Amino acid sequence: MKRQTECHYTHIANLIASAKSNDGAKARYVTKPSIKARKTNSVSSATTAHSRPLSDGNEQNVSSLRQKGRPNNPPFLGSPLPYSKSTPSNVFGIGSQHPFANYWTCSGGVAEVVGVLPSKEQADILVAKFFEVMDPVYPFLHRRTFFTNYERFWAQPLSIKNDADADLLALHYTIYALGTQFMHFPTYEERASSAEFYASAANQALRIYSYLNRASMRSMAAMILLTYFLMNDNHASDAYAWSGILLRQAYAMRLHRDPEFIDLNVSEIEKQTRRRLWQAVFFQDTFLTVLLKLPPTATHSDVQLDSLADEASLKADGFDTDIPFQSRVENLMSIHVIAPPVEAPLPQPPIDISPFLVDHTVDKADVEYIRSMWKLGNLVQENLSSPMSLNLPLVSSPRQKTSLVSSFRALYRSFPTHLTILDAGALQQEALTNPRVVRQNLFLTSNFYHCLMILQACENEEVGVECNIRGSLEAAHEALWSFFKLVRMFELEASVWWVFQHRAFEEAVTIARLLSIQPAQDVNVNDALYTKCKNDVVTMMDFLRGGIRGNLEMQSTRSLALEEAFEKIVV
Fold first, then answer.
1. Where does the UniProt entry say this protein principally localizes (predicted)?
2. Angle at the Cα of 374 (from 320 to 540), degrees rounded to 5?
């Protein structure tokens, strides 16, 4: 049948077709690869450290591919993820089951989720555990707002609870799930089962909320925390995919924009909450992609670091207790933006939350910690995450490596003194009176020295950049000892934190592989550094073999990989 009007798309279709041959030349990169790297990007992914093994008889092909590969970081930086079950459908081979068990009916709605709430007493215990363990290292929730809504929710009768906002329930259940992960249980299986039930309820609440086409600050907070839950629950594959969804929603909510730069009619508290939420998204994305050697996604932002403020210094503008943690800037694609509801919320009775608030000095210390982690994340994302994700050398000259190491050390010197204490005895004494600051110290120390280890170990033979073995060992030792200090002071927590455990595992593997390199004749193999680093690997193997309850399959796999590397040590 002949068209009645002229087709206006022919010209565009021709342009698209003609552009296909130039797709590679016009590809966009966060970190632009070198010309040589682009010429070799057709090399199979088997050249990477996390490649799947080829079939028997292809060993020569693997070797030749590695020889033809790009200038790469040394192989000892490619410590594998702790594969539990490597199946084709599982990206990282971790946690092959669906992460959220399905206990729910199609028509149950909010009432069904409310029906499985714990008792108020049990909820209080789990929330207290969350704010004791999780909040210090990821302090992005506005405490006054959260506890106002938390107490108000529990004060309502069941009929009112059944009409609660689904994103509020999602946040509550996520906190219950994380609190449960850090509680003492007779067995790991009991603890995991209880925590997974709360996580399933949180996921169901997000589904009722329609989290794929709506977003609020509460739903974003729940998704950020669920990512950490999934990692701790041995579901790193699911956590990585889940974090991709929340990043899209964060961009759609314009969390990456500083509230002062866009037209937002919101309170000062909400502006600060938006900044802290973006910091949490950015921090999670940057340091997860460093571990997984994958591209960072939270790369576009104009949020101002200096704009962060503590709660006590915020101007009281009428929303200090009644802001529902529900951003008035929802997902730009949502129908709620196109046709917003017209009814105004009813005024709520005042709630006494003074027992849940922290001292002003604690809140100021949180801001210092956030700023320190933010500065480190910016340096890491640009100089480590992006090039590592493209299998590119981190530096192009010895001078650049020296300069970058100096930048890392200068940044560390700029951190507040209480975050740079390395002495185990001093930290243990501080933990008796201020465990919150000690947890922040250990997490910052672990992240900083882990990244410094990667930088010191990088090499680029074509331009004369060599691995600084001594510098790598020193950084790996400090990073690994931050984990040992966590074990000593917060034993149960050390068995739960996946990110901390895996960094420690990578550091131990890196030490073992560095010590497996035949030293030069002028190197004193009896040096105290070599001895204590070798002892570090032994200590890590002892941790993995038993002692602390955790996921036995994951620990066993890590233990075998580390023992194999340890057997090759030559000093």
1. nucleus
2. 115
Structure-block tokens of residue 347 = 């005024």
Is 99 within a domain?
no
Domain boundary among 331, 358, 385: 358
Interval 134-177: pLDDT, tens: 999 999 999 988 999 999 999 999 999 999 999 999 999 999 99
Q: Phi/psi class of residue 309: alpha, beta or left (left: φ > 0; alpha: ψ in -120 to 50)?
A: beta
- Element (DSSP H or E) covering residue 230: helix 217-232
Domain that holds residue 518: 393-566
pLDDT in tens, 107-123: 889 999 999 999 999 99
How many residues are recorded in the chain? 571
Could you tell me which of 232, 239, 274 has the C-alpha nearest to residue 256?
274
d(CA 452, CA 429): 27
Structure-token pair, residue 216: 């609020």
Inter-axis angle of helices 143-155 and 120-133, to 10 degrees? Answer: 170
Contact call for residues 73 and 129 (beta carbons, < 8 A) = no
Q: Verify that 221 and 279 share a domain, yes or no.
A: yes
Phi, psi (5° rounding) for residue 263? -80, 95
Tell me which residue of 424, 520, 428, 518 sits closest to 478, measured CA to CA: 424
For residue 61, being part of any structural domain is answered with: no
Q: What's the angle, vertex CA 403, arms to CA 501 and CA 469, rounded to 5?
A: 50
